[in-house]
Design a protein that fits this description.
Layout lengths: L2 E13 L2 E12 L3 E5 L6 H8 L7 E10 L2 E4 L9 E4 L11 H9 L10 H7 L15 H13 L5 E5 L7 H14 L4 E5 L3 H4 L4 E4 L5
Parallel strand pairs: 3-8, 3-9, 6-7, 7-8
Antiparallel strand pairs: 1-2, 1-4, 4-5
Helix pairs in contact: 4-5
């Protein structure tokens, strides 16, 4: 079984002259859940975007490696998307698509977990009655459930979550926690949040404010 690692060395990101974070050295490894914490606007989401290579660092280095049978292999940035799934409030959705079409679209870029049909996935997140409904007619909570379905049921070793329970009610929180319990034991999970219910699965907390 492959082990995956995201390694930051003296990493920094700035906008104009303001450093969002800098001098950040850390290794994120498979089988662990990490919480990136900090006040609103402190740079949690910026760090997450750098980790998934959608945003470049201004300082330091970022390596993504896989290890199998003690042999380490670098993964090039243009291929990182194949290994990770992400759920964020700023993730755009094609609202003309139905829920089923949305998952089918993402399935073209990375596989969904085996032994789970689209119908079963949507039923698990409470959207079985909306399978053929256009996303434009979804409530904000339904949209978040669909984002969670796309992220948790992608067959990838890395899961990145930014405020994953945004717009969810109490039942939605319970759904999220059950997905974490059932599907994340062997993954590398990184969660940006200050909500205790969202990060109680994380043994490691990384305050972004320590890297200013």
């Amino acid at each position: 079984m492959n082990k995956y690692c995201i390694e930051l060395t003296d990493a920094g990101k700035r906008f104009n002259r303001e450093w969002i974070f800098r001098n950040l050295t850390y290794q994120f490894e498979s089988g662990n859940a990490y919480a990136i914490i900090g006040s609103n606007g402190s740079g949690k989401s910026t760090l997450l975007q750098c980790l998934c290579s959608s945003m470049n660092l201004n300082a330091g280095t970022l390596r993504f490696t896989s290890t199998k049978n003690k042999v380490e292999k670098n993964i090039s940035p243009e291929n990182w998307y194949k290994f990770l799934a992400i759920c964020t409030p700023y993730l755009e959705m094609v609202e003309e698509m139905t829920a089923q079409e949305y998952l089918q679209f993402h399935h073209r870029f990375k596989p969904l977990m085996p032994l789970h049909s689209l119908e079963e996935i949507l039923a698990r997140v409470g959207l079985s009655k909306a399978i053929h409904q256009q996303i434009r007619y979804f409530s904000s909570g339904m949209k978040q459930r669909l984002k969670l379905a796309q992220a948790f049921f992608s067959d990838t070793p890395i899961l990145l979550l930014d405020e994953p329970c945004t717009n969810l009610d109490q039942q939605g929180f319970a759904l999220y926690q059950s997905l974490i319990t059932d599907f994340c034991k062997e993954k590398l999970v990184i969660i940006c949040s200050n909500e205790a219910k969202e990060i109680d699965c994380c043994k490691v907390h990384i305050p972004i404010g320590n890297y200013k």
